[in-house]
Amino acid sequence: MSDWEDFSGSYRKGEVSFLLRRMAQEGFVDVAEKEALIQSGRRHYSQMLSPESQPSARYMALFDEACRANNARMARDCLRLARLIAARPLHRLALVSLARAGTPVGVVVARLLRELFGRDAVHYSVSIVRDRGIDAAALRHILAHGHPPDSIVFLDGWTGKGVIARELAGSVEVFNVRHGTHIDAGLHVLSDLAGAAACAASCDDYLIPSSILNATVSGLVSRTVMSDDMRTDDFHGCVFYEQFAAVDRSQAFADELVRLALAQSDTLPRAEPIDAAAARARSQSYIGAAMRRFGIADVNLVKPGIGEATRVLLRRVPRLVVLRDPAAAEVAHLAVLAEEKRVPVEIDPHLPYHAVSLIRSASDG
């Protein structure tokens, strides 16, 4: 598995080790076909990938604007997470980001731990799949490479409904029982909309710039996949989009966040405690109301928050986008995507988030 450990995507060596098995760019499934297969139960979403395309110039301009408006805040939140993690007693830390949304966060936090706090931090990025759990082969690999169980810290970008946070907790518990370990399954995120994370910099639904791009801000790595030919000791798979290298922003984005974080490290105020209970109640209340209002039986078809709403428009079949304020800069990219994909947009001034996307049910035809 040493070859995989050395795989850093388009990041510099030492920034991250993707514990993923690289797969050929073939066997892609059209988005509409994938949606039908998922909702019919004939295939799990983790068994299929749809091809990614190079972002348009118009969309990249929106990404650049998102960076100008929100990079400083994202950097500040990465710094807050780094400070909290640096307080852990063990010297050598194993940061384990959840690919892909967690990967840029892990790159930045690991750099801050090393450069600002003088901590020895190694960064791995691994796959986790809803209903399938964390990649157990990747965890075994990390432990086998000299990292004690209590040195492992899990990182992700944000929570939407808290599904992945709960998936992580459940699957790590199973791993601990099977292997006699005591890995802490607590998830560290920048924004916890669901009140489900162990540690979060905030509970605000703000535009995390890396949430609006796919591979070109995540090391040119695809969403992770569990191929049909996987063996017990195989890592989950991914596709490496080398053809997008000319437009890749992964390393430059992380470098800018580190620079911004270091610049504000002496003036960062103490973080206010996060009201996770309030975030959890808000999430549960909204999701229940949305399911009743729109006649939705499957909670997986409701995706609250900017990050999750963007994912739906990029790689699922959207039914509707709901925006609190269509003039807000945070949702400009969603308006463009909705226009390009001809997805209806509804305005709800009372929405507790900036945006929510609903996935089209296969029964709607």
Task: Explain this structure.
- The chain has helices at residues 2-5, 31-40, 57-86, 102-115, 136-144, 163-179, 250-263, 276-294, 306-315, 332-341, and strands at residues 17-18, 21-23, 92-98, 120-126, 128-129, 133-134, 152-155, 158-159, 187-192, 199-202, 237-239, 302-304, 318-323, 345-347, 355-359.
- It has 365 residues and is α/β, with parallel strands linked by helices.
- The strands form four sheets. Strands 1, 3, 4, 7, 8, 9 and 10 form a seven-stranded parallel β-sheet that branches.
- Strand 13 (318-323), helix 10 (332-341) and strand 14 (345-347) form a beta-alpha-beta unit.
What is the helix/strand order?
HEEHHEHEEEHEEHEEEHHEHEHEE
* Helix amount: 25-40%
Give the CA-CA distance, first to last residue: 44 Å
Report the major sheet.
7 strands, parallel
Low-confidence stretches: none
Gyration radius (Cα, Å) is 19 Å
Mean of residue pLDDT? 92
Q: State the helix count.
A: 10
Q: Determine the structural class based on helices, strands and strand pairing.
A: alpha/beta
- Identify the overall geometry: globular
Find the count of extended strands (DSSP E, 2+ residues): 15
Strand content: 15-25%
Task: Summarize this structure as a short list of keywords or feature phrases.
365 residues; alpha/beta; seven-stranded parallel sheet; four-stranded mixed sheet; 15 strands
Summarize the structure.
With 365 residues, the protein is of the alpha/beta class. The chain has ten helices and 15 strands. Strand 5 (128-129) and strand 6 (133-134) form a beta hairpin.
